[in-house]
Amino acid sequence: MQKISEVIHMSTTFTEADCENSIIELFQNMGYQYVYEPDIERDFYSPLYNDVLVEYIHRLNPSLPEEVISDAMYKLQNYANGDIVQKNEVYMEYIQHGIPVRYTADSWF
Fold this sequence. Notes:
- The structure is a single chain.
- The chain has helices at residues 16-29, 50-60, 66-77, 84-97.
- By secondary structure, it is mainly alpha-helical.
- It is elongated.
- 1% of the residues are buried.
């Protein structure tokens, strides 16, 4: 029996731009709209696009009072003291599982 082996050669290099474009295409295929960063008008001292973020928090949580959404935004903008690793862990927890905000039907606390 003859053993056949081949080596597949990559003819091009996969660059950072290729990676970015692949991710953009992936999200566009999922229905997201791509907006080129310089075309976005926002506060460059904040990493969050606050207006859109608040709009989508309202869409995802239509029954929550405005005060609760404001509290969630505050926590998102002012999360955790600590080193960068700890901050990233808290932020990822928020993204994956939501921002814990306590409230009752009549009020929030």
